[in-house]
Amino acid sequence: MSVAEMIASQERVELAFLPTPVHDLSALSRKLGGPRLLIKRDDQTGLATGGNKTRKLEFLIADALKQGADTVITAGAPQSNHCRQTAAAAARCGLNCELVLGGPKPELPNGNLLLDVFFGAGLNFTEKSKRNETMQAVADGLKTQGKSPYIIPVGGSNAIGALGYVDALRETVEQLNGLNLSVDRIVFATSSGGTQAGLALGAKLLKFESQILGISIDQEKLDGRPYQVELVQIANECSELLSQKHAFEIEDFDINYDYLGQGYGIVGDLERDAVSVLAQTEGILLDPVYAGRAFGALLNLISKGEINADETVLFWHTGGSSALFAYAEDMIR
Q1: What is the pLDDT of residue 207?
Q2: Which of 13, 85, 114, 271 could form a disulfide with 292 if both were Cys (CB 3.0 to 4.6 A apart)?
Q3: 80 is catalytic
Q4: Quick one: DSSP state of residue 104?
């Protein structure tokens, strides 16, 4: 059975504009003197200004509807791209949405949070460490009202959500083949893990051998325990959903932990420079938290010679430029 047939066997709702484009960053490649840079435009998935989470939500929302849910609950930071797209997907599919946001409530909503308001989501602010606990409390409260809630994990990162990126790699490989191109690496932002788990499983199913390199945005190794442990679980469970027997190990995931900066959502020179460079050479906007940090890492790896000038590299744009407005003071220095 082909990957396309495997994915077609899963419950799915149409939310994204697919396929998203792949094209050259030719002006930037010339400016750098190599490598050849390509970009996968998942900022163009369409839903609520686009982003990578829409691919996951096609399967997660389908599962919620299948289970008879009337409300979806998810969590993230106040400027979460995932929460913004979940709120939009819920509105489109006739579901209520409750968002659990880790951090203080701002006086004035801006960026993604402003869009959450427009999409009619309920906003529940709590401490970051209590997001999962608060999601369950919100769900329990809804059940006492006779509602049917469905919890989507942070980032949509579970086996069901990862299906979206198994299919995304199939889509991209077909595009590259159609352009008669091959790439040495795919580089992207990784955080909650569902995107990378799906890409890794897609690579095994498609026998795609190029490096899939995640740039960690906020995860780090703690007490020697690598973050890849979570990715192993997601990828293995997603493989089971597709009736496959691929068993993943930590070594199957490449993650660079060197670009955590001052922490999640704290914009530094790396992110500011990356956003400016891509905007001023290619007219493409990055978000300051995820794609901005990952693209800054890519530029730094090129400048250090860890990525060679004769390579071809695909940068996977995961979207989120609507968050730029909430970071205006941090971006303009």
Answers
A1: 97
A2: 271
A3: yes
A4: P
Q: How far apart are CA 205 and CA 199, in angstroms?
A: 10
Strand spans (E) along the chain: 22-24, 36-41, 71-76, 96-102, 122-126, 149-151, 185-190, 211-216, 254-256, 312-317
Block residue for tokens 């704290």: 266
User: Could you tell me the strand order of the sheet in which 211-216 lies?
Assistant: 22-24, 36-41, 312-317, 185-190, 211-216, 254-256
User: Active-site residue among 80, 157, 191, 321?
Assistant: 80
Element (H or E) spanning 173, and its range?
A: helix 159-178
List, in sequence order, the alpha helices (H) in 179-317. 194-206, 228-241, 269-282, 291-303
Entry pTM: 0.96
Q: By three-state DSSP, how is residue 257 classified?
A: coil
Quick check: 289 and 320 in contact, CB under 8 A? yes
- What is the structure's pLDDT at 227? 72
- Residue 230 pLDDT: 87
The pLDDT tens digits of the residues spanning 30-62 come to 999 999 999 999 999 999 999 999 999 999 999
Q: What's the pLDDT tens digit per position in 87-105?
A: 999 999 999 999 999 999 9
Q: Which amino acid makes up residue 98? A: E
